[in-house]
Amino acid sequence: MSTIESVVGVILAGGLARRMGGGDKCLLPLAGKTLLQRTIERAQPQVSSLLLNANGNSLRFARTRLPVVPDVYPDNRGPLAGIHAGLRWMHADNPNAEWLASFASDTPFFPTDIVARLFAAATAHHAQLAIATSNNRVHPVFALWHASLFGKIEQQLQTGEMPRLQDWIKQQKMVEVEFAVEGYDPFFNINAPQDLYTAEPLAALVK
């Protein structure tokens, strides 16, 4: 089985986007395309199938033609709830897949080889989880999650206590993969309106 055949992807778009005034941050435009369009274009070639994790009315994402999977647990419990929803879909609809790759929907310049590199590191180190890093920062939303983590994540969500994702991943059998910052940070994310202006000239540099 090839890397792509064994990996399902999920774009996490279930956040509340408080610093952007609420709403669907991923639908904001950047250099002629929405953040979500840019994310799909970079993620889709790297996985066998791609999902969108979002809550509320799924019709607002109809143009993507992606399956939309909401959180199973209410109250916006964060990215781990989105990972759980993706793994649950994978178990039911693509049981032969072993891995779930997660992507943030507000980080439009991430590497086009991220899944292959995370997969190589995870298999080489016999890890259940591979996490991207750059510039001495960990990016836990950009990760590769083994199917066997589903039970652990479900147990955590059932407690109602949600640790920071950075803290939760440290308790797992994980490996970090460093990505270079050359000309721009591939994990530059859009958190505030000013970030869109900063990202505009970067969009021309990204390949």
Question: If you had to describe this structure to a student in words, what would you say it looks like?
Answer:
By secondary structure, the protein is of the alpha/beta class. Helices cover 30% and strands 21% of the residues. It contains six helices and nine strands. It has helices at 35-43, 79-93, 114-124, 150-159, 165-170, 193-203, and strands at 7-12, 29-30, 33-34, 49-53, 68-69, 99-104, 129-134, 137-146, 174-178. The strands form two sheets. The chain has a seven-stranded mixed β-sheet with strand order 5-4-1-6-8-7-9, with helices on both faces. A two-stranded antiparallel sheet has the order 2-3. A hairpin with a 2-residue loop joins strand 2 and strand 3 (33-34). The protein is globular and about 40 Å long. The two termini are 28 Å apart.
Strand order of the largest sheet: 5-4-1-6-8-7-9
Order of helices and strands: EEEHEEHEHEEHHEH
Query: What gross morphology would you assign?
Result: globular
Ranges with pLDDT <50 over ≥5 residues? 17-21
Would you summarize the structure shown here?
This protein has a single domain (4-203), classed as Alpha-Beta Complex (Spore Coat Polysaccharide Biosynthesis Protein SpsA, Chain A), CATH 3.90.550.10. The chain has six helices and nine strands, in the order βββαββαβαββααβα. It has helices at 35-43, 79-93, 114-124, 150-159, 165-170, 193-203; strands at 7-12, 29-30, 33-34, 49-53, 68-69, 99-104, 129-134, 137-146, 174-178.
